[in-house]
Each structure stands twice: as C-alpha cells, then as structure tokens.
Amino acid sequence: MLTLHHLNHSRSFRILWLLEELKLAYGLEYQLVCHQRDKRTFLAPRALKDIHPMGKAPILVDDDKVLIESGFIIEYLLKYYDLNHQLQPTDDVQWQAYSFWLHFGESSMMPPLVMRLVMNAVATKSPIVIRPVAKAIRQKVEKMVISDTVRQSFGLLENHLQDKHWLAGSFSGADIQVYFTAKALQSRSGLDDYPNIQNWLMRCQARPAFEHAVATGGQLFA
Amino acid sequence: MLTLHHLNHSRSFRILWLLEELKLAYGLEYQLVCHQRDKRTFLAPRALKDIHPMGKAPILVDDDKVLIESGFIIEYLLKYYDLNHQLQPTDDVQWQAYSFWLHFGESSMMPPLVMRLVMNAVATKSPIVIRPVAKAIRQKVEKMVISDTVRQSFGLLENHLQDKHWLAGSFSGADIQVYFTAKALQSRSGLDDYPNIQNWLMRCQARPAFEHAVATGGQLFA
Fold first, then answer.
1. Helix/strand/coil for A201
2. Model-level pTM?
3. Which B residues, 25 through 44, put their C-beta within 8 Å of a C-beta on chain A?
4. pLDDT at B41
C-alpha cells in the first residue's frame, strides 16, 4: 500500500496530484497523511523527521520503502504504476523533453526561487537598524545569481510552450514537476511576461486529477 | 558526432568523465571544446550563451540537438550510448538507488552549497563598513536553510556508503552525478566527518576514465 505524507503548500502537492492521476487512470489506491506547517514560522513539523531523516515533504511510503525527492518519486511511480505509459512518453523525442524538464524544473529552475525567498525573508525580517544593508545585500544577490537565471530558465519554458499543449507530447510527470516551480514564481512575482506558461498552468489546473488533489490536499499556495 | 562544451572547474566535468567511461567501454568518440572561466570574476565566458541561451556548462551537442542539465545529459548518454547497461543498473533495487541519487545529488544536495558559496562571496567582498552586517546575514542564512540540510543530506550519503562500494550496485552515472557535489563540499569545508564519502571519492578518482578526464579537462577544483 502507498502512503503519501503531504505537507500543505509544499512540493508534496506534486505527488498527491500524480497519485490522483494514477487513481483516475488505473484505480490506484493510496493513503494520505496530512501534515501542517507551523502557522508562524511556516516550517515543517518535526513529525516528518520521524518518517525520514531529511524531515521534508514529499515522503512516499511503499510497503517497507520510504522515498523522498520529487523527481525520483515521479520516476518511481511511473515505472511501477503507470504500466500503459499514460503519463510518460515512450517516443524518443518526447522522452527527451520529459527527462529534461523533470531534471531542469527542480535542479535549475527551483534553486534561484528558493534563494530569492530566503533573501526576501532576511531583508524584511532583519532588525530595523540593519534593514537597509540587508536590502542592499538582497539586491546584490538578486543581481549576481538570481534574476538572469530565472529570466533565462522561464524564457526557455515560455518558448518551449509556444506550440505545445504539454511539455512532452501528451500530459506527463514532467508537467507535474515543473507546474510547482512555475506556480512558485507566479505566487511571488506573477507571470505577466509569460502568456504561454500562464495558459499551460490553466490547462494543468483544469485536469480532474488536479482538482481532486486540491480538494484533498488544499491549494498549493495560500 | 558528440561535442562536449566543457568549462574548467564546473559541472561539465561530470559529462567529460562519463564520455571517457563510454569511450573505454565502447570506444565512443567525442569532440571536446574547452572554455575558460574569467580568471578574476570566475564567470563563464559569453561564448557559452551563443551555444545555449542558459550560458552554463555542461552543454552537449549531439548532431542537431543541444542538451543541457547534468542529470538529463547523464540519462541521455546512458540511454543511447550505454547499450549493455555497463554504467546504469537494470536490477530494481539498484535502479531505485541510481535514480534517487541522480535527482537528489543535484536537486537537494547541491543548492545549499551554491547558496553558501554566494553568501560567502557577499560577506567577504562587501565594502568594509557593511561587512560585519553582511557576515551576520551570512550566519543567519547558514542557520536558517544551509547547515542542517547539508548535514542531513551528506549524512544520508555517508550512511548509504557504509556497506557499499558504489551508490547503486556497480559503478554508475549516479556516482558521477554525486561525485561533483561531494567534491564541492570537500573543497570548501572538508569531509572530516564523512570517512565513507572520502573513501568513495578515492575509488572514483582511481578509475582510468576519471584520470583521462582530468588529463584532458583539468582538475575539478583548483
């Protein structure tokens, strides 16, 4: 039996959504355990550490196996539970797009967004006397390593979606992986310059499995 | 024909090493184009942007395809050029380890190391009047999001290597992916608390293909 440990407003939404896709496609059953972030600190509860020492969501338990890391869990679920390849491409060109976005979405697109979040927290929550310096440092980091990379990587996604409904032919685990990343940018800075990404996000959100995931696990971003 | 655009002291060392493994195993030929970081800023040269808009290494060109992203390039090379599965496991348990470390090494282990590098640069290169505040901010970020995650993720790797020679059964692309990440930590902070990781790094470095990669592409870290 599969058990997903889900944390509200977190990457585990990806896996919840994928499990709902597999449920609709194959009738796959799973258990959901919902964990809540601390309302003040927004941190994950200690309970997650008791399940896996990294203490982060998602955690998927499959019998005696305790699995972490979005990209790997997506590959795992598709390998063992998507037996008709409904959510992963078999064609070479589409497999290449699938595998690229699965890695790129978390390894290259996501880290600068996390760094921006951290620098914003540092700048706005510093003691008032050092806040101007903290804001200057945020601006320096933004210029050094964040803004160009974000613009380039989301530009790549925007171009890729120019003539495509989904990232890799038909809908796949890659769309689920990158959806979270694009929503993370949208929730903070908007996506005004990226109409193709906006339309693709809406296509994602219109999927019945997505709607089920929101109904059981809550909205991705508050 | 395969062409690797290699940047000194960068992630493209991974792909150079993998190409050397494939050359030894199958006689695969490839072309190497070496790019040099700016000696003062340590930035990649603009020439990389002319090849791929992200402007980062590695870039692998396979006929008309221009590929980026370490994890994806490793999967791509193994899928199409490692036809006897010499560098990727077929067994289920080992495939799970392989896929996990391939994703985890770049998506979860690497980003806090990059953030630490950025915060160190900001702290040490700030104008002298704001340097104490910059160092306090570095310490805050280190405590908020870096040190625990680094300790946990490298602890996971250390435990995994307790009774194993390689990450996924025999040597595989996962070792290549995570090697870079572990060397990045070692070059900055040492690996005194991680004897298993140290021994595994030495096993990696003793491989003939690794030695060839160093001979053609240079040492990974200066």
1. helix
2. 0.97
3. none
4. 86
